[in-house]
Amino acid sequence: MYFDGVERSNGAGAGVLFISSKKDLLQYSFVLTQNCSNNEAEYQAILLSLGMAVEMKLPQLEIYGDSALVIKQLTGEFEVKKLELMPFRRYVGDLLAQILETSLHYVPESKNGPAEALAGITASLAYFDEWLNRVQSCQRWVTPPLAEEEAEEE
Protein backbone atom coordinates (compact mmCIF):
# COMPACT_ATOMS: atom_id res chain seq x y z
CA MET A 1 0.00 0.00 0.00
CA TYR A 2 1.34 3.42 -0.99
CA PHE A 3 0.13 6.61 0.69
CA ASP A 4 0.77 10.31 0.33
CA GLY A 5 -0.57 13.51 1.80
CA VAL A 6 -0.28 16.92 0.16
CA GLU A 7 -0.88 20.35 1.64
CA ARG A 8 -1.21 23.37 -0.59
CA SER A 9 -2.25 26.93 0.07
CA ASN A 10 -5.67 26.24 -1.46
CA GLY A 11 -6.35 22.84 0.12
CA ALA A 12 -5.03 19.46 1.17
CA GLY A 13 -5.49 15.95 -0.13
CA ALA A 14 -4.57 12.33 0.51
CA GLY A 15 -3.89 9.56 -1.96
CA VAL A 16 -3.85 5.82 -1.29
CA LEU A 17 -2.93 2.97 -3.61
CA PHE A 18 -3.42 -0.66 -2.64
CA ILE A 19 -1.74 -3.30 -4.82
CA SER A 20 -2.93 -6.87 -4.30
CA SER A 21 -0.72 -9.94 -4.59
CA LYS A 22 -2.34 -10.45 -8.02
CA LYS A 23 -1.32 -6.88 -8.98
CA ASP A 24 -4.88 -5.55 -8.83
CA LEU A 25 -4.97 -1.81 -8.07
CA LEU A 26 -7.33 -0.03 -5.69
CA GLN A 27 -6.89 3.74 -5.87
CA TYR A 28 -8.46 6.25 -3.49
CA SER A 29 -8.19 9.99 -3.10
CA PHE A 30 -9.52 12.20 -0.33
CA VAL A 31 -10.01 15.92 0.12
CA LEU A 32 -8.84 16.92 3.59
CA THR A 33 -11.25 19.58 4.76
CA GLN A 34 -9.25 20.92 7.70
CA ASN A 35 -6.28 23.24 7.29
CA CYS A 36 -3.20 21.23 8.09
CA SER A 37 0.56 21.07 7.68
CA ASN A 38 2.14 18.77 5.13
CA ASN A 39 3.15 16.35 7.92
CA GLU A 40 -0.43 16.31 9.20
CA ALA A 41 -1.63 15.59 5.64
CA GLU A 42 0.83 12.67 5.46
CA TYR A 43 -0.48 11.31 8.77
CA GLN A 44 -4.09 11.74 7.58
CA ALA A 45 -3.23 9.75 4.45
CA ILE A 46 -1.81 6.82 6.41
CA LEU A 47 -4.72 6.98 8.88
CA LEU A 48 -7.22 6.74 6.03
CA SER A 49 -5.32 3.89 4.38
CA LEU A 50 -4.96 1.92 7.61
CA GLY A 51 -8.64 2.46 8.39
CA MET A 52 -9.49 0.92 5.03
CA ALA A 53 -7.03 -1.95 5.57
CA VAL A 54 -8.60 -2.74 8.95
CA GLU A 55 -12.09 -2.58 7.47
CA MET A 56 -10.98 -4.91 4.64
CA LYS A 57 -9.56 -7.25 7.32
CA LEU A 58 -6.15 -7.45 5.64
CA PRO A 59 -3.92 -9.87 7.60
CA GLN A 60 -0.70 -8.30 6.34
CA LEU A 61 0.28 -5.01 4.80
CA GLU A 62 3.46 -3.55 3.37
CA ILE A 63 3.28 0.23 3.71
CA TYR A 64 5.23 2.69 1.56
CA GLY A 65 5.35 6.45 2.00
CA ASP A 66 7.57 9.29 0.83
CA SER A 67 7.61 11.18 4.14
CA ALA A 68 10.83 10.18 5.88
CA LEU A 69 9.65 11.98 9.02
CA VAL A 70 6.35 10.08 9.28
CA ILE A 71 7.85 6.68 8.43
CA LYS A 72 10.75 7.14 10.87
CA GLN A 73 8.43 8.36 13.63
CA LEU A 74 6.26 5.28 13.12
CA THR A 75 9.23 2.90 13.18
CA GLY A 76 10.65 4.58 16.28
CA GLU A 77 13.78 5.89 14.55
CA PHE A 78 12.63 9.47 15.17
CA GLU A 79 10.90 10.82 18.25
CA VAL A 80 7.65 12.73 17.76
CA LYS A 81 8.54 16.20 19.04
CA LYS A 82 5.66 18.34 17.74
CA LEU A 83 2.66 18.17 20.04
CA GLU A 84 0.20 18.40 17.16
CA LEU A 85 1.60 15.17 15.63
CA MET A 86 1.44 13.07 18.82
CA PRO A 87 -2.28 12.17 18.54
CA PHE A 88 -1.73 11.13 14.92
CA ARG A 89 1.17 8.88 15.91
CA ARG A 90 -0.87 7.28 18.68
CA TYR A 91 -3.90 6.66 16.47
CA VAL A 92 -1.75 5.17 13.67
CA GLY A 93 -0.18 2.86 16.26
CA ASP A 94 -3.64 1.69 17.33
CA LEU A 95 -4.57 0.88 13.73
CA LEU A 96 -1.25 -0.86 13.02
CA ALA A 97 -1.87 -3.10 16.03
CA GLN A 98 -5.10 -4.33 14.42
CA ILE A 99 -3.24 -5.79 11.42
CA LEU A 100 -1.34 -9.01 12.12
CA GLU A 101 1.75 -8.24 10.07
CA THR A 102 2.90 -4.83 8.86
CA SER A 103 6.11 -3.35 7.55
CA LEU A 104 6.83 0.33 6.95
CA HIS A 105 9.15 1.54 4.21
CA TYR A 106 10.35 4.97 3.14
CA VAL A 107 10.38 5.46 -0.64
CA PRO A 108 11.55 8.53 -2.56
CA GLU A 109 8.85 10.67 -4.21
CA SER A 110 9.82 9.23 -7.60
CA LYS A 111 8.66 5.78 -6.43
CA ASN A 112 5.42 7.10 -4.90
CA GLY A 113 4.06 8.79 -8.02
CA PRO A 114 0.51 7.34 -8.21
CA ALA A 115 -0.29 8.09 -4.54
CA GLU A 116 1.24 11.55 -4.86
CA ALA A 117 -0.78 12.25 -8.01
CA LEU A 118 -4.03 11.20 -6.31
CA ALA A 119 -3.26 13.42 -3.31
CA GLY A 120 -2.25 16.36 -5.50
CA ILE A 121 -5.39 16.19 -7.63
CA THR A 122 -7.69 16.22 -4.61
CA ALA A 123 -5.71 18.99 -2.92
CA SER A 124 -6.24 21.08 -6.06
CA LEU A 125 -9.94 20.18 -6.19
CA ALA A 126 -10.40 21.33 -2.59
CA TYR A 127 -10.23 24.89 -3.92
CA PHE A 128 -13.35 24.34 -6.01
CA ASP A 129 -15.83 23.63 -3.21
CA GLU A 130 -18.93 24.32 -5.29
CA TRP A 131 -17.84 21.96 -8.08
CA LEU A 132 -16.60 19.34 -5.63
CA ASN A 133 -20.01 19.13 -3.97
CA ARG A 134 -21.43 17.94 -7.30
CA VAL A 135 -18.94 15.07 -7.59
CA GLN A 136 -20.62 11.79 -6.77
CA SER A 137 -19.08 10.03 -3.79
CA CYS A 138 -19.38 6.27 -3.47
CA GLN A 139 -18.30 6.13 0.13
CA ARG A 140 -17.00 8.57 2.70
CA TRP A 141 -14.15 7.75 5.05
CA VAL A 142 -13.82 9.93 8.09
CA THR A 143 -11.09 10.04 10.66
CA PRO A 144 -12.22 11.04 14.14
CA PRO A 145 -11.29 14.50 15.39
CA LEU A 146 -7.98 13.83 17.08
CA ALA A 147 -8.13 16.85 19.36
CA GLU A 148 -11.42 15.64 20.89
CA GLU A 149 -10.03 12.13 21.36
CA GLU A 150 -7.02 13.54 23.19
CA ALA A 151 -9.24 15.66 25.46
CA GLU A 152 -11.28 12.58 26.42
CA GLU A 153 -8.12 10.70 27.45
CA GLU A 154 -7.09 13.41 29.91
TrEMBL record:
CDD domains: RNase_HI_like. It holds the Pfam family RVT_3. GO terms for molecular function: nucleic acid binding; RNA-DNA hybrid ribonuclease activity. Residues 3-119 form the RNase H type-1 domain. InterPro entries: RNaseH-like_sf, RNaseH_domain, RNaseH_sf. It comes from the Eukaryota. Signal peptide: none annotated. This is RNase H type-1 domain-containing protein.
